[in-house]
Structures are given as C-alpha cells and as structure tokens.
Specification:
Belongs to the CorA metal ion transporter (MIT) (TC 1.A.35) family. The protein is α+β, with helices and mostly antiparallel strands and 306 residues long. The chain is 60% helix and 15% strand. A hairpin with a 2-residue loop joins strand 6 and strand 7. Helix 4 packs across helix 5, helix 7 packs antiparallel against helix 8 and helix 8 runs antiparallel to helix 10. The longest helix is centred in the last third of the chain and has 63 residues. The N and C termini lie far apart (77 Å). About 2% of the residues have low confidence.
C-alpha cells in the first residue's frame, strides 16, 4: 500500500507515485519483490529485505537502502524483534516488513500529531525513529531499578539469586548497546547525504536522531558499568563469607590442637610414664584439657577472632 501525504494520507497505486510529492510505501517482502518492476531496486536488496538481520544502511544509485531491527526487550531478558527494510529516495520512503500493521499504526500516529503541510521526508524518518525508541528510556530506567534492588539485597545480606537475576539483565544491556551503536552509525550515514535525497536544511533531524540514540547508548553503557560494580560487590561479600567460615575452622582447629598433643603424648604407652599408674592421672588429663580449651576460648574471644 502506498500513501501520498498532502492534507491527509491518500492511498495510491505504486505506478502513480510522483517524485515531487511526499510518498510512503508499506509493503510485505513478498509484495516488494512482486512490485519491484516499478522501482528497479537492486536484486541483492530485495533478497536482504526478505530476512533483515541487523541495523545498517547502504548507498545505491539514486536511493539509500537499509535494514533495521528494533528490540522489544523486557527486563527479564525476553526479546521480540521488529524487523524491517527501507528504501529512501527523494520524497519517497518505502518500508518492507512482515509486520505491516505495526508500521501502518506508527505512520498514522506520526502523521496524526504533525501538521502534514510542514511534514518533510527527513522529519518523517526522524519521527518514526523517535516512535520506535520512545519506550527505551523507561525500559532502561526499569533495568536501573532492578539493579538497585539487587544491590540493596546484597548490602543487607539478604538471600539473592544473583546469577539468575543478573544474567538476563546483562544480556539485555549488551544487546541494546550493540543495537544503539549501529543506530548511531546509521544516523551518521544519513547525515552525510551522499545521494542528495535530503535537503541540507533538514539534515538537522538526523543530527537530533543521532544525539537521542547516543544518550540511550551512554545510559546503557553506564548501566553495564553499574552492573559490573554490583557484581564485584557480590563477589566481595561472597569472599567475606568464605573468609568467615575459614576463620571459624581455623579457630576450632587451633583450640583442639593442644588436645591432640595431649592425646598423642599419653598415647605412646611407655613403661616409665608415671602418669599412667597415677591414681588421679585420668582426672588430671581431663582438668588439663578443660583448662587448655577454656584458655583458648578466652584468648580468641579477647582478640575478637570469633
């Protein structure tokens, strides 16, 4: 479906597109391939539009071609991609996606809040990008709150399933960081305007788009660094708990070491050991053992070793 934008969205046929009027095309990959006789796009772009994989933009004769993948990712690591390919010519934007319903809704929302008489191709592209990333700031804020909650649990020594909670967040942030870096490159490529499909005075919209995505990229990187700090705090707490356990075992071993010496000493059974035949020998060993253990407890308690 093609729409000519004037005072409203007017459906038109592909053959009726006029270069002097702003036109938007919304096609499935199959429809794009079927109607390519009207556009004469390179066959490689048609094949790539069938299966968009990443964010990039390439220059061809008289038009720009790109693919894009926006991630609808929640904090639990669940990822649902929106994939699309697009062609940009002077006063013409053609979008190819299996999810044409979502594209059409976005087009109608954008054209519904912007005066159509002032709408340009550059402004339309900027508004669509802004629409697709509009929820990302709130999503990153949700992730930040989850990391803060995990950090608070660690600091309060509450039971935390750290790896189960942090792994999906780390995966999400890595995915978004790569995603935004590619979008920044795309914005820079659009600003260069090598095919001269945009007007010079409207290139500022792509600069605005790049700045907006750069803020998302910086916030994502900041959250990844924050997550690294939380992971280090968790590791430090785990090491501290392990040290406390080892310290307790060391104290217990030290307390019973003199008792081991006494047992070994009187376990030699030499014939000339007077304590073996002494009437109070057994009681004396018990008293000695109790005194040694009591002294060790007193000493370690005084030194705050347990």
């Amino acid at each position: 479906m093609f729409y000519q934008i004037e005072d409203a969205l007017h459906p038109i046929d592909a053959a009726a597109c006029e270069p002097s009027r702003l036109t938007v095309g919304i096609l499935t990959p199959a429809e794009l391939k079927q109607q390519n006789e009207h556009f004469h796009f390179h066959q490689q772009t048609i094949e790539e539009a069938m299966h968009p994989r990443n964010n990039h933009i390439d220059l061809y004769e008289n038009y720009d071609f790109g693919t894009i993948c926006f991630h609808n990712t929640r904090g639990n690591g669940e990822v649902k991609d929106f994939q699309a390919a697009f062609y940009i010519r002077r006063n013409q934007l053609i979008i190819s996606s299996e999810d044409i319903g979502r594209v059409l809704v976005a087009i109608r929302e954008v054209t519904g809040r912007i005066p159509l008489k002032s709408l340009t191709l550059e402004k339309l592209i900027y508004a669509l990008f802004e629409k697709l990333i509009s929820k990302d700031f709130s999503l990153l804020q949700e992730i930040n709150e989850q990391i803060e909650r995990i950090e608070e649990d660690i600091m309060n020594d509450r039971n935390v399933s750290f790896h189960q909670e942090i792994a999906p967040l780390r995966k999400t942030l890595l995915l978004f960081e790569n995603h935004y870096s590619h979008l920044i490159e795309m914005g820079s490529d659009l600003q260069e305007n090598e095919n001269e499909v945009f007007t010079e005075e409207n290139l500022r919209y792509f600069h605005m788009m790049t700045d907006r995505v750069s803020r998302l990229f910086n916030q994502t990187r900041m959250l990844r660094e924050y997550m690294t700090q939380v992971r280090e705090a968790y590791q430090a707490q785990t090491d501290n708990h392990l040290n406390q356990i080892m310290k307790l075992f060391t104290v217990i071993t030290t307390i019973f070491l003199p008792l081991t010496l006494i047992v070994g000493w009187y376990g030699m059974n030499f014939t000339n050991m007077p304590e073996l035949t002494w009437k109070y020998g057994y009681l004396a060993v018990i008293i000695l053992s109790v005194v040694v253990v009591g002294f060790c407890f007193y000493y370690f308690k005084k030194k705050n070793l347990f």
